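Q: Okay, next protein. This is Competence protein ComGF from Companilactobacillus tucceti DSM 20183. I've checked the sequence twice, so it should be correct. Can you predict the 3D structure?
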Amino acid sequence: MMLSESLIALLVTVLVMMVLQQTLKVIKHVPDNLNTEQIRWHMTNEYIQDKFQNEELKSISSKKLIFDDKDKSGATHVLEFYQNMLRVRSEQGGHVPLVIGIRSGSFKVRDDLIIIKMINDKNQTSEMHLINVSKRNSD
């Protein structure tokens, strides 16, 4: 009787360990399957659109855009690629990182459309499109 109870206890222990091992494998890959990157991407896109759509584009380069504030208060905002991030900063100081983990990025301006192209550390390419309403209204 003792031997059979020990064998059953050992069998149950092995089964529990196998289930636990499979569960840990699934949990390990859960962050890869979540849509957090996509949600962060859309939030960043909305932030950029809200912040810059009405501001006047003052200076353009492939790595930096400088905007004058829409109320002509003299404040300028800079949207730029810096090190491994896309960030917003003011000329007076301080910055807000918007997207981190960027290997390369560039800006292109076509009429009232600003195209922000980024390649991340996983070699995935993506684009954001910003409509600059102030440019459209000034034409």
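A: Here is a summary of the prediction. The two ends are 93 Å apart (CA to CA). The first strand starts at residue 56 and ends at 60.
Q: Noted. On to the next one.
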